[in-house]
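Note on ligand handling. Small-molecule inputs were canonicalized before submission; formal charges were left as drawn, and no protonation-state enumeration was performed. Where a ligand contained multiple stereocentres, the stereochemistry in the source SMILES was retained. For nicotinamide-adenine-dinucleotide, this procedure yielded the string shown in the input block below.
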Amino acid sequence: MTDHARPVQVSVPSHTQGPDVLVIGLGYVGLPLVVEAIRAGLTVVGYDISPAVVSGLNSGQSHIADVSAGEIGGLLAQGFRATADEDTIGVPGTIVICVPTPLTADGGPDLAAVVSAAEISARRLRPGSLVVLESTTYPGTTDEVLRPLLEKRSGLSAGLDFSLAFSPERIDPGNPDFGIRNTPKVVGGITPSCTEAAALFYGQFCNEVVRAASAREAEMAKLLENTYRHINIALVNEMAIFCHELGVDLWDAIRCAATKPFGFQPFFPGPGVGGHCIPIDPNYLSYKVRTLGYPFRFVELAQEINHRMPGYVLSRAAAMLNRHGKPLKGAHVLLLGVTYKKDSADLRESPAVFVARGLRASGAYVSYNDPHVDQWIVDGEPVEAAAVETADLVILLQAHSAYDLEAVERSARLLFDTRGVTTSGEVL
Ligand SMILES: NC(=O)c1ccc[n+]([C@@H]2O[C@H](COP(=O)([O-])OP(=O)(O)OC[C@H]3O[C@@H](n4cnc5c(N)ncnc54)[C@H](O)[C@@H]3O)[C@@H](O)[C@H]2O)c1
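Structure output:
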């Protein structure tokens, strides 16, 4: 950690020439942050490169399930505006970067959006400003990537003239119990005074702020949380495969193990992992570990196991149809619930895509049913929405609360349940 003789003065920054807060990237992470900051009485401008996102928000529409159109209307009434034109932003007191951190074609970290957000930030840095990175990334990004970009382009020094910190987003889309306000917020600055500046900022709308030793520990905390889930899901997925062959009901074994009041947290098998946190983020950590000359074996093994699950679902589906005298080729298979997460409309990295692709490649006719997805396109080709009773086989991939599972069990000719929630379906 850099030791500065003259640390930046810790206070909630505010500038008269612009909003209290600029949020860069108005997606699943950025938009809920806007909501809470405005509720706390701050003035907020949102910047996004997508003209569709910007015009939608400015006309009162929400593209994020967790934020209603009514809430967007309320934000606009309180002065919020979204923009894709950086010249209209002004000079904010605090800048929070919530842009995507995807993977490059060869599986490495793609920090292009973070770099571009850093450039926008650098052009409006002033003495006393606070910059926080929330995008998930490998340990060292805030100090090694963001800091030099900000300092070079602004001519100011981090920790001295302005504050710079990392704060991992822990948003759980669709979770009705935990949001930004009541989920402890981890903050880690590149100096202790930067940590304090970030803690002051989030303390305005988060009930509890947890200070990390530095930005690196805050970055690592997020990756540890995601990797922990990734590995434990892989553990039960691998167990599901051999338990099926051994004739052991793994779901019942998990139910029993979960009664232990200490030292065990239940994880459940499924058709594969989706979203951003589980399939993508641990790659950022394994990339960083590889720079040391060796692999992060737990992550790589978990990836291999979890990626194999859609193929395993396919082989079990084919075996089920075969037992009932029907080949997969020509069979009508309906996928029930195609989003990666229960009660969410989020299709990112959904394993349902891999199942549908495999079914099509085997000559099956694929349809779907999902109350959260109006139109589902796989590999450029729309998948037809259909009713459960029309299919030779129904594969339950996501058990949304809206489903009447008893009705599904009654009307499905054959039911393969990859979530362990039905009584008569064949379970993964
Ligand atoms: N979604 C989650 O549940 C979740 C949870 C924790 C952490 N994260 C992390 O937060 C980050 C953002 O994820 P998200 O889910 O909000 O993504 P998202 O795709 O929902 O939203 C990102 C937004 O940023 C915009 N954008 C892209 N490039 C930009 C740029 N250069 N400048 C300005 N805007 C830009 C996009 O148009 C989009 O509206 C990622 O690093 C992700 O890993 C996501």
